[in-house]
Amino acid sequence: MLRIGQAARRGRAASATRFVALLFATAALCLAFTSLVAVYSGYAGTEERTAARSPQRVAGSHGATLARYLLKQDTLDDARAYTVVYVEPLSSAVAPPPGLASWPSPGEAALSPALLRAGAREHIADRYGRLAGTIGPEGLASPSERFAYVRPAHTMRGMVEARPIHGFGAAAEWGNGDFTHQRPVWEFLLTVCGFLLLPAAACVVLAARMGADERDRRTALVTALGALPAHRRLIVIGEAAAPVIVGAAVGSVPAAVGCLVDVPFPFSHFTLYAPDLRACALWLVGAALLSLVVTLAAVTVLHRHRRSTAATRLRASHATLSRIACWACPLFLLAASYGPGLAPSSASRVLFQAVGTLGGFATLPSLIAAACTAVGSALAGLSRRWAGPAALISGRWMAASAATTARLVCSVVIAIGLTGEAQLWMSRMAEPVRQATAVRQVVGDSLLTVTSPKRITPQFTTSLPEQVVLISLDENKGTTRLTGTCPDLTVLHLPCHSGAVTPAMHTDERLRYAFGNGINITTSVTPHAPARMSGTALLLSRDGAALDVSEIKRTANRTLAPGTSVSALGTGWISGGKVLSDQSGWLLFLGLLGTSVLAVGFALNTQAEFLRQGRAAAPVAVLCGRRTIFFGLSGWSLLAPVLVSGAIGVFVYSWLAGPLVADGYASTSSPLMLASLGVSSVLGLLLWGCGGTIAARIASRWRPNGD
Q1: Of 484-498, 509-523, 530-544, 673-687, where does mean pLDDT reach its minimum?
Q2: Which of 234, 278, 226 is nearest to 257 (CA)?
Q3: C-alpha Rg value of the chain to the nearest Å
Q4: Distance of CA 628 to the CA centre of its chain
């Protein structure tokens, strides 16, 4: 029975297409299953290593103080925040944190490899002191984590912020590093299921039902010869076994690569640690076998023995429901575009947008099918005047089998639309970053804020370049007081006498951006540089030029208390937005992957349907005297719908982006539009070339046999 199934797979129309479809569907399903395992293993490894480096608190009489620990944040020029741990061992009995072979000496620091690479241009290696080495992978949440251990040259024992600890290896209750920003694992698993597993399951169903009419005729034949249901299932399994096995092997390749080397992911700035995936190697093997079993089970279950009067393809919806859906689709799209502007609250605006988008996508196939029927009839009518057989036959096919073309068009349109929605919400979450970036583009690095756990020291003041204006900042009970020398205050358009109150809007532009126009600034004059007067200070350039931020940070780490922060205006907003951007980057990555899987699955299904119809049109090659007509049929049936669907998808994406762009909190992506048009064009050309070539090859083997 298995050999009969293997023989039945060869020699049929569209057999190669179904082979590729089953292979692709199994590979996508295997990729989805192994992705779930990878998510779990990545989370488990990150949490384990974060817990291993988390400090053990000294609480009451539980444990002796063996070290002091201070957790801070710092940034590079890209405003992406990373964790800096200031640690000072008080006893030789305490072991260094994981990833360090020994404690750094006073005034030394150990940095992660990713931080060293990212900060090479800013001389990050000596920002916190001498470089003592790099942190090993067992001490990092992931290979892409930016992390630093610093043992300050000055003692931390007098600092209130420094926490007493007696070792490392507690539960990860002190959020540090990448673990601080991780979403719950169940959210990520649900995201993978929605964006990757569901499209893969849809491809399995499409591949299983591909060529159902021919298999139904074969089933009727073997049933008449006395085959039992078990025999029929073995024939179906024998037919699908080869592509399914190859597909499971192909789908396992990304997991196998991830077990050997660290794999970086686009858009998210995350690198999967290979040992984490190797620890779940048996689960990966089980996922590959599960994809094979599930696909074979789907092929067997979906191949149902039908009576000869039963249809072998999915039947269209009731005509009344189809007409209602045709009218409902533009109404849903109008509600998604104009409804949010009429909504009374933000929650209802989001509801209008979500319901309109989902309703529009759900009813779009009926509208596209009706359009295909009308376009096919018009194309056939025009082709009679032009005497074009390819367009005439394609028009008739499109009008008679509008659902087939509609599935192809809708898959591409919905793929582009969903990817565009992910990009829009990603840009919406990044809006605070754009606003803060706009402010920073105006002010630049000409204004820095220095915040120290203790007072500003004279050593730091005297080490600043001459073009730097140092102003002490004291904000207390709604009062903003700036203290500086008379020349420095004059540079900032502030009066040179103590107690004067000046609106921020009448001062230097940089102060207006820092405090806002509605703030009043009280000045205080000092004859010398305001050292030891406050723990917070403003550094401004006299001529508005950019300051050397990396050098000032290096100076602050050498002359001020451990944990001192030096940041440009808006860096905090940008850093917080980077976290949201990285998290939403997963949505964009998985959305692109899932929609691509869905589009390819529907494209292969449409090509198989075209080849089934192309076999029936084989005698046309005899009447025309040339087989190139099949490239014309492929162009009208495959290439033209895909090209049109790309344009429609970009239009739907732009239409649905209207309310999000109108309120100024999101923006469309021109590269995404161009990429959508480019990918749809490439997909159409591939379908056109493969479909025309295979149909012409089938026609060359056709012989009159009474059909």
Answers
A1: 530-544
A2: 278
A3: 33
A4: 43
pLDDT in tens, 258-305: 999 999 998 888 899 999 999 999 999 999 999 999 998 888 887 665
DSSP reduced 3-state for 206: helix
DSSP code string of 445-480: TSEEEEE-SSPPPHHHHHTS-TTEEEEEEEEETTEE
> For 680, phi and psi rounded to 5 degrees?
-65, -35
| Strands 520-525 and 479-484, sheet pairing | parallel
Longest CA–CA span in the chain (Å) reads 110
Q: Which long-range contacts (CB under 8 A, 24 or more apart) does 664-667 make?
A: 664/431, 665/428, 665/431, 666/424, 666/425, 666/427, 666/428, 666/431, 667/427
Strand partners of residue 653: none
In whole angstroms, what is the distance from residue 92 CA to residue 600 CA?
Answer: 62
Torsion of CA 409, 410, 416, 419, to 10 degrees: -160
Give phi and psi for 647, each to the nearest 5: -65, -40
Phi, psi of 85 (to 5 degrees): -105, 115
Instruction: Assign 600 to helix, strand or coil.
Output: helix
Give the position of tokens 């390749």: 253
Question: For the packed helices 346-386 and 640-656, what is the interaxial angle rounded to 10 degrees?
Answer: 160
Single-letter amino acid, residue 259: C
Token code pair at residue 171 = 């539960």
Residues recorded for the chain: 707
